[in-house]
């Protein structure tokens, strides 16, 4: 089982696909869930406090907007943990919508900087492309070690 | 109080929940008995709203802002006012923020204010802005008042000075002005001065209104009938004194520690911006300059009128480094007149660069606040904007006058 970073980071379809092939998706939903269920923090709706953008400084400098750093404080650790990555390009909002384009640029860049297996596929627009899209992802996931110790 | 009594403010932002400021926004709203609401829209519209709005941006959250703005304008979301907020230092968001604000304001007539936040933004910073928004949304009748009636007093507890006026039947009959040291004592002293000059007793006053930073503290102390933030009060006071209560006007208020630029229609504030992050654009900069030049602040203006700002090289607007530039110029032989002119120009230029970009400057342009009395300041502003600058009589007292005027609405009810 490999830890797979997915982009868009909140894509339910992508996350489900990764799971079906026996790997662990590193998705934003999990992290948000952790945040929301953390007892003692009272900063609704997603419990991001002014401390989080400071944690984001590890990924983006102080001149980068607080919203980008706040998002990076969640996404950045996922990239750090990743053993492989799947990046879907130009996807529709319904496939997984990440709000901030600057965060998205930085997220993809950091995932590409890592020396890990990576698949980049275009979001399909036709049925034929859709089949090919799933096939490529399946092939990529099958090529990854099913046990620990990847790389 | 039931939910329906609350002022509904639509929050149109691009992810304030990720910047750690959401709680502060909620907290500022709830302290004013307002409620933040999130206009509903169709998710599929996110893919098309850019083209529809005419502004195609990469960030989906900015498209969400446009879609929510559309929901507000089309009346899908029933709200009383709109707060538009994006991250500080994001160029893409700044473009959308300004255009969305303009679109909502022009197409819905709802009061709208905007703000760019950092993770350090606190509820206290947001309070004055939200208070102005809720007042404009819910108390238009209060702001519609054009004449002062009865015997009332207004006290403006500012960061640097405390001003008080006593008004009777549309006339200022007493004025008080003291530096703010201990907030309550200074307010007492200012009011006493105004009462003495007016020749009336405190118990004769029919109503008292307070404004400025210390409005709540002094308001409780004097048992005031009205405690109101400076945006609405100062705009009202400015257009009243400038005799421009009908039609468009722009009010620039350069205070001791911050400044405001307010676009006013029929005496009611529309778009406005507040400074406050940099002392270089406030009266404090001028105070520091006059100290360095060894002249009283009241003499700085006349000095500046005689000087040429271009003879002094200013490398920074900063109150530390800007003053250093002035000192260096003196060392190189610049005259005190030139330095005074450069200081006035620096303050005005910074207000122009930081704040006047965000509101439409419509004539008459009314300059108020203590700094407007320094003659070099209106001169520099006139040169920069190439339009006439009106400094009304009692320009330093607009807050107190506005409070005395607005609170006279409470005299009627008695």
TrEMBL record, chain A:
Superkingdom per UniProt: Archaea
Pfam families in alphabetical order: DUF2112
Protein name per Swiss-Prot or TrEMBL: Methanogenesis marker 5 protein
UniProtKB/TrEMBL annotation, chain B:
Family annotation (CDD domains): ASKHA_NBD_MJ0800-like
Top-level taxon of the source organism: Archaea
Keywords assigned: Iron, Iron-sulfur, Metal-binding
Required co-factors: [4Fe-4S] cluster
SUPFAM superfamilies listed in its UniProt record: Actin-like ATPase domain (SSF53067)
Ranges where the ATPase BadF/BadG/BcrA/BcrD type domain occurs: 154-406
Pfam families attached to this UniProt entry: BcrAD_BadFG
GO molecular-function term, one example from the UniProt record: iron-sulfur cluster binding
Protein's UniProt keywords contain Metal-binding: yes
PANTHER family: BIFUNCTIONAL PROTEIN [INCLUDES 2-HYDROXYACYL-COA DEHYDRATASE (N-TER) AND ITS ACTIVATOR DOMAIN (C_TERM), BIFUNCTIONAL PROTEIN [INCLUDES 2-HYDROXYACYL-COA DEHYDRATASE (N-TER) AND ITS ACTIVATOR DOMAIN (C_TERM)-RELATED
UniProt-recorded name of the protein: Methanogenesis marker 15 protein
């Amino acid at each position: 089982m490999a830890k797979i970073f997915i982009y868009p980071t909140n894509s339910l379809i992508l996350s489900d696909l990764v799971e079906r092939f026996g790997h662990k998706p590193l998705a934003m939903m999990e992290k948000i869930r952790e945040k929301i269920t953390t007892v003692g923090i009272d900063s609704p709706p997603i419990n991001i406090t002014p401390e989080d953008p400071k944690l984001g400084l590890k990924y983006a400098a102080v001149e980068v907007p607080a919203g980008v750093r706040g998002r990076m404080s969640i996404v950045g650790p996922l990239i750090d943990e990743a053993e492989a990555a799947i990046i879907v390009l130009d996807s529709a909002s319904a496939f997984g919508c990440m709000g901030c384009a600057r965060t998205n640029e930085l997220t993809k860049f950091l995932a590409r900087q890592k020396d890990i297996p990576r698949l980049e596929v275009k979001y399909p627009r036709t049925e034929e492309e859709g089949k090919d899209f799933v096939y490529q992802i399946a092939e990529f996931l099958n090529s990854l070690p099913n046990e620990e110790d990847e790389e | 109080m039931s939910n329906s009594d609350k002022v509904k403010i639509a929050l149109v932002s691009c992810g304030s929940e990720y910047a750690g400021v959401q709680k502060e926004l909620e907290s500022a709203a709830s302290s004013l008995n307002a409620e933040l609401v999130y206009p509903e829209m169709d998710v599929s519209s996110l893919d098309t709203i850019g083209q529809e709005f005419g502004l195609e941006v990469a960030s989906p959250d900015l498209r969400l802002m446009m879609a929510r703005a559309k929901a507000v304008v089309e009346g899908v979301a029933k709200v009383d006012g709109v707060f538009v907020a994006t991250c500080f230092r994001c160029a893409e968001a700044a473009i959308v923020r300004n255009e969305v604000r303009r679109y909502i304001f022009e197409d819905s007539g709802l009061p709208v204010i905007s703000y760019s936040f950092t993770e350090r933004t606190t509820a206290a910073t947001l309070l004055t802005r939200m208070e102005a928004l809720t007042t404009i949304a819910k108390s238009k009748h209060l702001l519609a008042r054009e004449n002062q009636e009865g015997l009332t007093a207004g006290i403006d507890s500012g960061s640097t000075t405390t001003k008080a006026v006593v008004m009777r039947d549309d006339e200022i009959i007493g004025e008080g002005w003291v530096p703010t040291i201990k907030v309550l004592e200074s307010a007492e002293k200012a009011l006493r001065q105004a009462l003495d000059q007016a020749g009336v007793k405190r118990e004769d006053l029919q109503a008292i209104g307070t404004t400025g930073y210390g409005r709540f503290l002094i308001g409780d102390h004097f048992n005031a009938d009205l405690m109101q933030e400076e945006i609405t009060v100062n705009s009202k006071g400015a257009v009243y004194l400038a005799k421009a209560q009908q039609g468009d006007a722009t009010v620039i208020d350069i205070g001791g520690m911050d400044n405001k630029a307010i676009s006013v229609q029929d005496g009611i504030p529309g778009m406005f911006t507040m400074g406050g992050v940099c002392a270089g654009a406030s009266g404090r900069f001028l105070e520091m300059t006059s100290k360095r030049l060894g002249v009283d602040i009241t003499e700085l203006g006349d000095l500046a009128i005689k000087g040429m700002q271009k003879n002094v090289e200013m490398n920074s607007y900063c109150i530390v480094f800007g003053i250093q530039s002035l000192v260096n110029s003196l060392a190189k032989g610049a005259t005190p007149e030139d330095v005074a002119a450069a200081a006035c120009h620096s303050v005005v230029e910074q207000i122009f660069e930081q704040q006047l970009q965000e509101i439409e400057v419509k004539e008459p342009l009314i300059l108020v606040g203590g700094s407007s009395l320094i003659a070099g300041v209106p001169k520099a502003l006139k040169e920069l904007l190439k339009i006439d600058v009106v400094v009304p009589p009692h320009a330093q007292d607009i807050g107190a006058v506005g409070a005395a005027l607005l609170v006279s609405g409470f005299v009627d009810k008695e």
